[in-house]
Amino acid sequence: MDIRIIISVLRATLRQSTPITLGALGGIFSERSGVVNIAIEGMMLSAAFAGFMVNVYTGNLFFAVIGAMIVGGLMGLIHAWLSITFKIDQIISGTVINILAIGLTGYFYQSGATTKGKLSPIPIPILSDIPVIGEVLFNNPPITYTAIVMVFVTAFIMFRTTWGLRTRAVGEHPHAADTVGINVYLVRYINVIISGAVAGLGGAFLTLESVGSFERGITNGRGFIALAALIFGKWNPYGAWGAALLFGFANAIQTQLQFTGGLNVPHEFIGMIPYVLTVLVLAGFVGKARPPAAVGQPYDGHLSLKEIFNDISKMFKTKSPEIS
Length: 324
Fold this sequence. Notes:
Blueprint (H helix, E strand, L loop, with lengths): L2 H30 L7 H19 L2 H25 L4 H19 L13 E2 L9 H5 L1 E2 L1 H19 L1 H11 L1 H6 L4 H27 L11 H11 L4 H24 L6 H5 L1 H13 L19 H10 L10
Antiparallel strand pairs: 1-2
Helix pairs in contact: 1-6, 1-9, 1-10, 1-11, 2-3, 2-4, 2-9, 2-10, 3-4, 3-9, 6-7, 6-9, 7-9, 10-11, 10-13, 11-13
């Protein structure tokens, strides 16, 4: 096989896996704290639209990325408000977010709107000159770099920080966490909002780095594939990244097959490859993966806004009690 084809497939794999990686990482924050997040699709879609429109009206890509993350975070806030405060079934709440995103982006979409450029690759000096590896890993736009860095940042936060300890405690046994002074509502609220912001960055990738424009339903199920990657990766950032790369590779292969031809197969069947893989992964691994024990279960403790605000003020000033 030509080396250029190999490089092209590897670059496409990394590019296609980026929104899935960010969506899965966002899901980790939410589900590790005990809140099911099937709203990743809606968070990504609304953020993709917001980033596009900010870019249309301001022409500033930095503001567009920030705007996308803010909107993703706001969708996370709505999900948290419905599922944590009002204790609505978290699956239904996530479905509401997805439907809301489709409706709002479709209604406010302006046909013919054009952006003023998109994020360009930034080659890293010296490293980008390494054969094959340098071209694949070290010559990418900023959101792609950010997705890779976020994998390690998320792993560090989850398993090496007090906040990660609190998050995992709340997701495994919220009543036990409450007894040692952890505000379950606060931890869940913040993590779901972070989840939306990170997923929003994945949406920003689509309109500000990959395509450069917006179309209705541009996420095309990537949020659900991210959820599959999250489960396949067993709610671990490294596992989720590996699963995202697998799905990205499936996308890259089907794209390569469609462009190069050579197979007497209808293109619709080739385009099904990533989604068939998703079904196979879910069918084969969902029963074997153990989610956080309290995920999907509303917490019935006493909700006090005063306690939440007090905890926000002292959250980074006191050390969380150890959970054994």
